[in-house]
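lol forgot to send this yesterday, sorry. C-alpha cells for the thing we talked abt
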C-alpha cells in the first residue's frame, strides 16, 4: 500500500495510473526531491530510468540513489558516460569484477569513487575470482594491493579474488609490513 514514507518511482509505476505516471515523468526533477522511499527498494528498471534522466540534477541523483538495495547489472544501459561515476558513487552498480574492471579502464586507473566502491563491496567481490579474461586484471591487482587504500581487513579479504603471484614486486616498496606479510602468507610473493 502506498504511503508518504514508502513512495518511490517503482511504486508510482505500479499504480498503472497512466495520467499519474505521466505527470510524475514530466516533473521527475521536482518529484524525486519529495520521494521518501524509506525502504530504498527501487527496481533495477527504475534505478536505470532515474540515472539516465537528464532532467534530474546529478547531486540529487547521487543522494537519492545511494543506499538503494537493488542494483543495475552493468554499464550497458547507461546512456551518458558522465553517469558512470554516479552509478559507482551511489553504489547501485552490481558489485562484480567485470564492472570494477570496466570503470577502472574508463577512468584510466583507480579513482576515489572506485576505491570506495571496492572497499564497500569487499565481501561481495571477495566471493568472486577476478577473471583472467579481464585485460586489466594485473593492473587492478597492482592498484589494489600496492597501496594502503584498502582497509587491512578488505586487503586480506579481496586477495582471495586474485590468483597467482603479485605481478610487479617493485611496486610494493610503499606497502606496510602488515600487508607484505599478508601477501607472503598467501604465497603471492615469488622468491628468487
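and heres what i got for the seq, position by position
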Amino acid at each position: 500500500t502506498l504511503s508518504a514514507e514508502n513512495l518511490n518511482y517503482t511504486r508510482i509505476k505500479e499504480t498503472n495510473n497512466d495520467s499519474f505516471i505521466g505527470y510524475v515523468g514530466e516533473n521527475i526533477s521536482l518529484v524525486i526531491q519529495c520521494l521518501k522511499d524509506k525502504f530504498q527498494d527501487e527496481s533495477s528498471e527504475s534505478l536505470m530510468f532515474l540515472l539516465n534522466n537528464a532532467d534530474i540534477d546529478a547531486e540529487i541523483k547521487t543522494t537519492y540513489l545511494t543506499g538503494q538495495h537493488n542494483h543495475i547489472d552493468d554499464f550497458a544501459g547507461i546512456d551518458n558516460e558522465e553517469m558512470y561515476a554516479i552509478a559507482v558513487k551511489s553504489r547501485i552498480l552490481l558489485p562484480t569484477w567485470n564492472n570494477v574492471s570496466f570503470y577502472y579502464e574508463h577512468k584510466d586507473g583507480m579513482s576515489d569513487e572506485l576505491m570506495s566502491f571496492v572497499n564497500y563491496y569487499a565481501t561481495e567481490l571477495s566471493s568472486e575470482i577476478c577473471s583472467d579474461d579481464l585485460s586489466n586484471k594485473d593492473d587492478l591487482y597492482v592498484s589494489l594491493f600496492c597501496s594502503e587504500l584498502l582497509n587491512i581487513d578488505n586487503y586480506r579479504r579481496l586477495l582471495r579474488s586474485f590468483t597467482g603471484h603479485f605481478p610487479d614486486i617493485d611496486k610494493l616498496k610503499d606497502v606496510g609490513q602488515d600487508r607484505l606479510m599478508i601477501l607472503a602468507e598467501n604465497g603471492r610473493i615469488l622468491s628468487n
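The longest helix spans residues 97-106. anyway ping me if u want another try
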